[in-house]
From TrEMBL:
Record organism: Ascobolus immersus RN42
Superkingdom, taxonomy of origin: Eukaryota
Coiled coil: none
Stated family: Belongs to the NmrA-type oxidoreductase family.
Domain NmrA-like, residue spans: 4-296
GO cellular component: nucleus
A Pfam entry, by short name: NmrA
Name of protein: NAD(P)-binding protein
Keywords: NADP
Length: 305
């Protein structure tokens, strides 16, 4: 029974990938990497399946993570799910790039067969040629390039690059969600592609379980489940939830624009370029359960009136 090492296990993308691996009931051991194996979130995750084994570790020390993983499993680590954080406490695009590249090096040292990296869409098939000027897009672009170089385009270690678009979760009620919605409204009639993190997990699990499938072997896939402008999203939200989609005052969003190069550059890119270009129709043929915004709200934990 091979082992799969999943980073960000208690986060959105890593957690979704683990849930999908468990759902598939595949003959694999799931090594869930968490910074604190004693946390409630980690314990709750481990209780979901006997196949899940917690590995305490830090992305800043990937060699230590592999050493810790080998103490809880006697089977080869054949797959890795790699995700880093570029924003938040202690995180930056610079630290993300350092962590992402280091993990690729250590995976190669440990003879990992298949490496799944979650990046970001930068224009569909043009993504590799389109780094953009958005700091946390550019860092992911650099990690992609490093993966191709170090893996010798899949000759030394096979890979799948997942390129999600905006997360539906970004629009959830709360300060940052409300500000995101205000900035989305600023885009105007321009449509924005979005994806449910559970569906990122579905594709991540499929890539890890079917590494020789041409869809995933040394391939990159842009991911989205819907494409809609703010007004369309707000209409669906009100129909499903029974109240207006929460949106902050424009001056709050404008303040974030002024304070953060990330937000101002990203939303300007959304507004003034072709932006995300995932092929949603093709994705739905691969994954018929792919969620649009309406389906996402049906399953969301948001409070309904």
């Amino acid at each position: 029974m091979p082992a799969i090492l999943v980073f960000g296990a208690t986060g959105k993308q890593g957690g979704a990938t683990i849930r999908r691996l468990v759902e598939a009931d595949a003959p694999v051991e799931i090594l869930a990497v968490t910074r604190n194996a004693e946390s409630e979130g980690a314990k709750k995750l481990a209780a979901e399946s006997p196949k899940i084994k917690l590995v305490q570790g830090d992305l800043n020390e990937p060699r230590g993570v592999f050493e810790a993983a080998k103490k809880v499993t006697s089977t080869p680590i054949e797959g890795v799910f790699s995700v880093q954080v570029a924003m938040g406490p202690g995180a930056s695009p610079e630290s993300e790039e350092v962590q992402g590249k280091a993990l690729i090096d250590v995976a190669l040292e440990n003879n990992v067969k298949h490496f799944v990296y979650t990046s970001v869409d930068r224009g569909g098939e043009r993504s590799l040629q389109n780094p953009t000027s958005i700091p946390h897009f550019l860092s992911k672009h650099h990690i992609e390039e490093y993966l191709l170089e170090k893996s010798q385009n899949g000759a030394k270690m096979e890979y799948t690059i997942l390129r999600p678009t905006a997360f539906f979760d970004n629009a959830k009620p709360g300060f940052m969600g409300n500000a995101f919605n205000a900035m989305w409204k600023w885009i105007g009639d321009k449509k924005l592609q979005c994806i449910a993190t559970e569906d990122i997990g579905w594709f991540g699990a499929q890539a890890l379980l079917n590494p020789e499938d041409p869809l995933y072997k040394n391939a990159a896939i842009s991911l989205a489940g819907d494409e809609l402008n703010y007004e369309e999203a707000a209409t669906i939200f009100k129909e499903k939830m029974g109240y207006e989609m929460p949106t902050s005052y424009w001056f709050v969003a404008q303040g974030l624009f002024l304070a953060s190069k990330e937000f101002s550059t990203m939303f300007t890119w959304f507004k003034e370029t072709e932006a995300y270009k995932a092929d949603i129709e093709a994705l739905r043929k691969i994954h018929p359960g792919l969620q649009d915004f309406s389906a996402y709200l049906d399953r969301s934990p948001y409070e309904k009136n």
